[in-house]
């Protein structure tokens, strides 16, 4: 049975693509948005010079990345100090973020075997926050459960000790700093990529056309006739 899909030739497809006008300035802004959000300071500096994209204080990226690296390496106290140096209102106005940083600090104490210090920290810093805000209780209970196991690497809440937990907390801090600096917390390019993939998958149901088969090179595959 012949396919009822509309067939669009490569020539027709490329003609339609060429008819779409994209300003170079808009493309440059998209790239710069990605570089700034993801913290590629040196690349952003060169790109800004080469393209003349609107000036951005790149020093703020360096400071933000220093906070992110501190959390990723487990130096939570240092990260909190750096955040407060940048803008003390970030933590003052975001109790959930501050709780997650304190939670990560507790996890690091347990990871390093400082059980006595960890117990004192949990009682003095985290327990009162759990009493004040019941939204924190579940996370607090999961974290405190680490105390119940001699081998925390094989306990039911061992995921808290995984590197992914540090990355999650670092990402949350990064987003909060970006928001405080009036930047978007997520880069636009990955979102646009998801939209493009969705659109292509949806179009597959209605037409046969030169579709992208390799997203790293945007190679087009000729339509099947």
General description of the model:
It is a single chain. The protein is mainly alpha-helical and 225 residues long. It has a domain at 57-186. The chain has eleven helices and four strands, in the order βαααααααααααβββ. It has helices spanning 10-18, 24-38, 41-51, 59-72, 76-86, 89-92, 95-111, 115-132, 137-144, 163-180, 188-204, and strands at residues 6-7, 207-208, 211-214, 219-221. The strands form two sheets. The protein has a two-stranded parallel sheet with strand order 1-2. A hairpin with a 4-residue loop joins β3 and β4 (219-221). α2 (24-38) runs antiparallel to α3 (41-51), α4 runs antiparallel to α5 and α7 (95-111) packs antiparallel against α8 (115-132). The radius of gyration is 24 Å and the shape is elongated. The model has no long low-confidence stretch (mean pLDDT 90). It comes from Salvia splendens. It holds the Pfam family LisH.
How are the secondary structure elements laid out?
Elements: E1 6-7, H1 10-18, H2 24-38, H3 41-51, H4 59-72, H5 76-86, H6 89-92, H7 95-111, H8 115-132, H9 137-144, H10 163-180, H11 188-204, E2 207-208, E3 211-214, E4 219-221
Parallel strand pairs: 1-2
Antiparallel strand pairs: 3-4
Helix pairs in contact: 2-3, 4-5, 4-10, 7-8, 7-10
Helix content: 55-70%
- Please state the average pLDDT score: 90
Secondary-structure content class: mainly alpha
Distance between the termini: 13 Å
